[in-house]
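Standup, Tuesday
Yesterday: got the pipeline producing structure tokens again.
Today: sanity-check two examples.
Blockers: none.

Example 1:
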Amino acid sequence: MTDIAYVSVPKDLSRVKTKIILNLTKRQILCFGIAAAIGVPTYFLTRGFMGNSAAVMVMIIFMLPAFFAAMYEKDGLPAERIVLNIVRARWYHPSKRPYKTENFYHVTEQEGKIFDQTEQPATTGKPTAAKPKASVGEKPKKR
């Protein structure tokens, strides 16, 4: 019997990216090159007066944005596109509410006050109902 080799093929071929060197894309190679161009001189310029450990930390801090730009991708968008979209949504085109909601609690409260004011009994000279007596243990109110 012959063994057949199976190769998994992704369903969405538009998400497959062309790898060039060391299984890296052109974008990753470019960003790593920029990171090296920023980080290596930073290390050599700072290690004389800061020491090796501090110079390496400064170099890492300077190189991190380029590494982030090379590696981070969400929903097919690279990092700088995501940041640009956030900036546009937050500052250039702030959201506007197309409508304003009504506070129904406040509206019903106001209607209740109006209802209470309009439903007061008119004085006709007839005696009104007897006033309630004080409960057990309460003192009668003085007038």
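Example 2:
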Amino acid sequence: MPAESKPCVLILCTGNSCRSHMAEGILRAAAGDILEVCSAGSDPAGYVHPKAIAALSEIGIDITGHTSKHMNEFLHRDIETVITVCGNADQVCPVFPGQVNRHHWPFDDPAHATGTDAEIASEFRRVRDEIRRVFEAYAAGRRAGASRAKKSL
């Protein structure tokens, strides 16, 4: 399905460096054929956290090409669904053109993890796995809905 005909899901976080990129990568891997998936932040960090890149690489998802973006870059876009993955982004989230759905699914910020490198990597994996469970379930629901819609045509 061409990107312009797919519903666009925008995943928001404050820094757009960890959680939103992990969610974007996971959702795109699970449903990129039926959804256009983007991420942005209310106060972008300007980079994608290397440990988020590594955590997704471990499950076969490459987000090395992702960039940190401001949510205002999407104000001109037709966004069907906005999903916030941290409290701050939910509080400052504008309404986007065409927005039909909004979900708030907060996850811990692994960028604030402390400890040894192994302990920090473990926290990134834990958060990645939580994000994966939620967004793969969301993708399955969207896929089932798309399948029902096709059958009714």
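Quick observation on example 2: The chain has one domain: 3-152. The first helix runs from residue 19 to 31.
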